[in-house]
Amino acid sequence: MDEDAEAPFSGAPFIDPESDYPCCWFCPALRLPRTGFLVADRPSRDWPFDAADGFRYTVDTRTPVCVHPGRVGLAAELTARTYVDPPLPDPGQDAPDGHPRRWWRLRRPGVRAVPARR
After folding, report:
1. Which residues are registered as beta bridge partners of 55?
2. Which of 15, 28, 46, 89 is the most buried (most CB within 10 A)?
């Protein structure tokens, strides 16, 4: 591997793995120096977990992310967005075609029924 590619991740880990620090066993702070990872306020879809190596990564730059700032003793640099599902339509409200809605016909936006195949 190219030495320049490893440069941001070279050096001693931010937290010594042999210490009694309460961070997670897969935390990037145990494997990377402080310049090699970001700290977020909590887990989020914005930095999904990658099971291949055990890190959470930012979506755009694939920078490792620690999601427990209190456990590593650092302030959060990233703030997770709040995701809210769209509300379901009111079951008592009439459908756009003028017929009353029935509970089995309620659909969430973007969800499609898949016809059965034989």
Report:
1. 50
2. 28
